[in-house]
Amino acid sequence: MHKHARSILSVITFVTTILLILSCPFAFSQSKTKKTISIDNADSLLYNEAIIKNAQRLLGNVKMTHKEIVVFCDSAWSYSSSNTVDAFGNVHIIKNDTLHMWARYIHYNGDKGMAKARNKVKLKDPGLTLTTDSLDFDMKEEIGYYNFGGTIVDSTNTLTSIVGRYYSKEKELFFKDSVRLVNDDYVMTSDTMRYNTETEIVHILGPTHIIGDSTYLYSENGWFDTKNNLSELLKNSTVRRGDTQLEADYIFYDDNTGDGTAKGDVIINDFANKIIITGNNTSYNDFSKYAQVTDSAVFIQCFESDSLFLHADTLQTKPDTVGVNQKIFTTFYNVRYYKNDMQGICDSLIYYTNDSITQLYNEPVLWSENNQMSADFIEVVTNSEPTNYIYLKNNSFIVQEVDTSKYNQIKGKNMVGHIIDNDLKKIDVNGNGQSIYYPVDEEDYIGVNRAESSNIVLYLKENKIHHISFIKSPTGVMKPLLEQASPETRLEGFKWRNNERPISKYDIFRDKNGTPVPQLLPKSEIRQTLPVVKGLREKTLSGPDIPIKPE
Question: Which residue segments constitute the domains of the chain, with CATH numbers given?
Fold first, then answer.
């Protein structure tokens, strides 16, 4: 090209550039009240007021800056009057060299500090990465918003939701609608959740399910520390691990030590042994499998056609080393229990699930139909087929009510009661046997028989004495009936204690003086129809499964 022609072209290019700069104060000027977006680089810069007023078209390797923010893109429109930019293609925004955002399109408002990103949006902050198709980000407050689905990933968790809010300065994230958090240990789904990326604490703000390999948790309010493995559940909460499920108004749990506490309408389900324990105050340890329940404590053992309801001041449970899932239940102070075919009271009681043995201590009394059994110690064995046993040891005494003034009575050192089909069929008296018995001729009593023998065998029919056999050296005398009770019709130590007998599952609540205490059994009579696991398909205690953790 001719040297003169090249000089003219250079002058035209220079003049054109000067005119563009003078006509677009947006590019490099700075007012006293705000700083405008500056253009640092572009392969080409076009300006034509006839097409778009106060706008520049930037093409190729575009770089712009605004305060501490840098914008890179393939092309852009910048608008001087509104201090805004529309950036297209491989858009990358950097703030303070720490916060990065990418998208195919971003509209940035310099005055408001607001970036609206669309299409394959990715935001990266130290500690997390957010991806979505639509994100509004307030660069001044460092707050991000998405309303049409997003995913956040940090070092241990992947979280998705329909609606999300990210507060970068506070390291807080808020999620709503189809919230799902996944890590190596569990999957959490929720309606509403808040999460802190620094403390790694999840705040439960709505119905939430957490499913692990062998653990299930449901709650509607509380928090879960994913870093330190602590949790506090505050509303309508359920925790299930293996064959044990806990429900309560309040639950605190330390996964490191296995220690937990639960308060308010506590229900513990032992699915393997078909046992429910309830109360208002519980402490437990997942490692030792020890638990203690106080304050309106109730023990329920579920059978096919009936359930046993027991109340005591304190209930304790621990594993029995004799077998898997076998446990020892200890109850003490003011023990009362009710079952349709048997009722009892004592000071303390121990139940072994392995061999279905129940031991009653300190002035125990049992009632079955019209039979009252007492001794210093009573043991009930219900695992035998077809016969179960009741062992009465030391100062054994059985009283059978005939009518309001007549009582058949058997007294001895030790006794063994034979139970077949839930009925007491036979009683063996071993040592120092004494009896008072009202024999019947057809339907009339013919007298009162008082006899003694070291060993006595009683046969019962329909829970009434049908026949008595005196085994060794019997002595006895038959006397005529007396209209009123007299010492001759009472063995020493006789006491008819029917006023202490629990008459229903509601009557297990009495104070130490035996006075009935009006008290409702919690949660629908403690679910004699066995409970449904929250969030799972409806099955009863006899067979609900832990939900499988989703992939």
Answer: 3-128 (2.60.450.10), 149-296+520-551 (2.60.450.10), 338-507 (2.60.450.10)
